[in-house]
């Protein structure tokens, strides 16, 4: 059933908790209801990757389709999951039912519907590897589409859905979790986990690591990694290494090099740096926080300052991973 509310505070609806309001919010609980929506609206999941920088006058559509269906075959488990299911709830559900595969992605905030949008990833796994298809309503063509994994065009924090922010509403995501499971422990932070650990034990270890490293948005409002890790050419990398031999990096298959944005920001001594009520977290340079009644302008000023300083020192333009929402749409830094 679609519900409709007006003049709603956005503070509890996004994890950065800025003090703005939405003119109207529709919440849909069945996939078919999406076909009745018309006009220019913003799709919102749990708001953990979206920062509202001002009051929002366009309609917001929250997707609350809540279903998990599982079919078993000889080689694995086929899941069809509603876009409104909480991501970590799905991870726990699969592991409790002895369906391993999602353990490295435990405790990532947000909804299942948003997971393919930026191809969520953590600890050496990206969700696109486990998605078999995505069902979405095409708002422009007004028709249902079924995207195979290849058609989703998954890349680092990117997909066809992210590149067309006003075109698709994802209603269901299908996953295939093979029975031939192997632990994925090559990522540095997981090196201490027992190689014979069960998927559930790996999930518990990931949860403990995340809790020790990342600020909990319920206590310190934030939107996770604010910037994406930049990819640079070998030439740019060599220039940086000359001045910063210890730069955190790892090579990519295409010959380029990925840099750790948090390392670059930390190197500039910006941990704890504050603009108005927005600040860089004291322990995690990649995380911007709403420290003290921040306004949207504080967040934008801080993010642009960080970007300028990184560009000046390292010659690298870092891009926002979070979606900064102005009233007219996405704000570019
Ligand atoms: C503390 C913290 C830690 C985090 N750690 C990680 C991490 O380790 N790895 C990682 O990848 N991300 C991480 N994130 C980011 C965030 O958890 C993910 O991006 C998550 O997928 C966002 O889900 P959401 O439902 O909150 O999305 P929202 O913020 O509500 O939406 C994000 C984008 O997706 C679109 N969208 C949402 N639902 C749909 C839908 N059904 N159909 C079409 N478009 C839709 C929205 O329009 C918006 O553009 C972290 C965030 C926080 C706060």
Question: Which terms would index this structure?
Answer:
single chain; 333 residues; alpha+beta; Uridine Diphospho-n-acetylenolpyruvylglucosamine Reductase, domain 2; Uridine Diphospho-n-acetylenolpyruvylglucosamine Reductase, domain 3; 3 domains; four-stranded mixed beta sheet; 21 strands; binds flavin-adenine dinucleotide
Low-confidence stretches: none
Structural Rg = 20 Å
Largest sheet: 5 strands, antiparallel
The ordered string of helix (H) and strand (E) elements is EEEEEEEHEEEEHEHEEHEEHEEEHEE
Supply the number of structural domains.
3
Structural class: alpha+beta
CATH uppermost class of the largest domain = Alpha Beta
The fraction of residues assigned to DSSP E strands is 25-35%
The share of residues in helices is: 10-25%
What does this structure look like?
This protein is α+β, with helices and mostly antiparallel strands and 333 residues long. It folds into 3 domains: 3-63, Uridine Diphospho-n-acetylenolpyruvylglucosamine Reductase, domain 2, CATH 3.30.43; 68-213, Uridine Diphospho-n-acetylenolpyruvylglucosamine Reductase, domain 3 (2-Layer Sandwich), CATH 3.30.465; 222-330, Alpha-Beta Complex (Uridine Diphospho-n-acetylenolpyruvylglucosamine Reductase, domain 1), CATH 3.90.78.10. 20% of the residues lie in helices and 28% in strands. It is built from 6 helices and 21 strands. It has helices at residues 87-96, 160-163, 199-213, 234-243, 261-267, 296-314, and strands at residues 3-9, 21-28, 42-44, 50-52, 60-63, 68-72, 76-82, 121-122, 125-126, 131-138, 143-148, 168-178, 222-225, 231-232, 249-251, 257-259, 274-275, 278-280, 287-290, 323-326, 329-330. The strands form 6 sheets. Strands 6-7-12-10-11 form a 5-stranded antiparallel sheet, with no helix packed on it. The protein has a 4-stranded mixed sheet with strand order 1-2-5-3, with no helix packed on it. It has a 4-stranded antiparallel sheet with strand order 13-19-18-17. The radius of gyration is 20 Å and the shape is globular. It starts with a strand and ends with a strand. Residues 15, 42-50, 63, 83, 108-111, 113-115, 117-118, 120-122, 161, 165, 168-170, 214, 217, 222-224, 323 line the site of flavin-adenine dinucleotide.
